[in-house]
Design a protein that fits this description.
EC 2.4.1.207; cell wall biogenesis/degradation; GH16_AS; globular; 6 helices; eight-stranded antiparallel sheet; 333 residues; glycosidase; single chain; alpha+beta; seven-stranded antiparallel sheet; secreted
């Protein structure tokens, strides 16, 4: 992706999620309070109001269950450069180190066909240009499926860029890039993927930043029959990661360190040859309330789109003169 593409969408807009959420909650409470007073004055039945209130409550977000934090060794194993992984607090927290010789990474012990996967990550601080911190799911064959979080480093004082992508049948090119509304190097934040037969949701903390729905009926492949492992890595990608490769990694700042904890996996474990999940429809992340975003979640996603999105493949007419068919369904136009 070129630096001109990266700059599409304008500059970073200041503000935070709390500044957005608070008025919505306040207005909702005020509206409910007003309805109570109005119904009381009109003498409407209590049952009428309770039915109305139940309908209002349905519109609130169905957020994923709280992740269960477990030590690294419960779900993961190192994959390369073992000496570049440092362990703390009995393995409940680890650090990945990148130097001019090598990066490092780890992967899940099992393969999964659908589920909820999350990780608390604190990004490389300071001058991180050229580095990529990755958290992703991927199958293991030529026409692979993949669900990506990639955090692209930047020069000191410049914001991190979060890139997401979805590969299906070996085809990707569905990049979206956003700025975050906080400094991801100062504290841990939770990054999560919810994947079921109906959609994929990318979350930053509890904020949905992207939805990729099952549009198989539109001729768009969806990952549904290839079990995936979860991977995390820190590596050098200064040929493309920062301003299209213009900013190179400054090795005098090495080692570059990314920190991880949480290591939550709640998925349908399967062998790599499995074609379906034997608990289909029985897990919490597979229930009807997780087959789409609700009104409140769509509003949060809209907030991310309007204030923090800097590149979206759905609006890139140079790459896609004809809009990809899934973009309308995913509300990415």
């Amino acid at each position: 992706m070129t630096s001109s593409q990266l700059r599409e969408g304008g500059s970073r807009v200041q503000g935070g999620c709390d500044a957005y959420i608070y008025p919505v909650i306040y207005i909702t409470k005020t509206y409910i309070s007003t309805q109570v007073e109005t119904h009381s004055k009109m003498g409407s039945s209590l049952w009428t109001f309770l039915i109305w209130l139940s309908l209002v409550s349905v519109s609130f977000a169905a957020i994923p269950r709280k992740p269960v934090d477990v030590p690294f060794g419960r779900n993961y194993v190192p994959t390369w450069a073992f000496d570049h992984i440092k362990y703390f607090n009995g393995g409940s927290e680890i650090q990945l180190h990148l130097d001019k010789y090598t990066g490092t990474g780890f992967q899940s012990k099992g393969s999964y066909l659908f589920g909820h996967f999350s990780m608390y990550i604190k990004m490389v601080p300071g001058d991180s240009a050229g580095t990529v911190t990755a958290f992703y799911l991927s199958s293991q064959n030529a026409e692979h499926d993949e669900i990506d979080f990639e955090f692209l480093g930047n020069r000191t004082g410049q914001p991190y860029i979060l890139q997401t992508n979805v590969f299906t049948g070996g085809k990707g090119d569905r990049e979206q890039r956003i700025y975050l509304w906080f400094d991801p190097t100062q504290a841990y934040h939770r990054y999560s993927i919810l994947w079921n037969l109906y959609l994929i949701i990318f979350y930053v903390d509890d904020v949905p930043i992207r939805v990729f729905k099952n549009s198989n009926d539109l001729g768009v492949k969806f990952p549904f029959n290839q079990p995936m492992k979860i991977y995390n890595s820190l590596w050098n990608a200064d040929d493309w990661a920062t301003r299209g490769g213009l900013d190179k990694t400054d090795w005098s700042k090495a080692p570059f360190i990314a920190s991880y904890k949480g290591f939550h996996i709640d998925g349908c474990e399967a062998s790599v040859n499995a074609k379906f999940c034997d608990t289909q429809g029985k897990r919490w992340w597979d229930q009807p309330e997780f087959r789409d975003l609700d009104a409140a979640q769509w509003q949060r996603l809209k907030w991310v789109r309007q204030k923090y999105t800097i590149y979206n493949y759905c609006s890139d007419r140079k790459r896609y003169p004809q809009q990809p068919p899934e973009c309308i369904r995913d509300r990415d136009i």
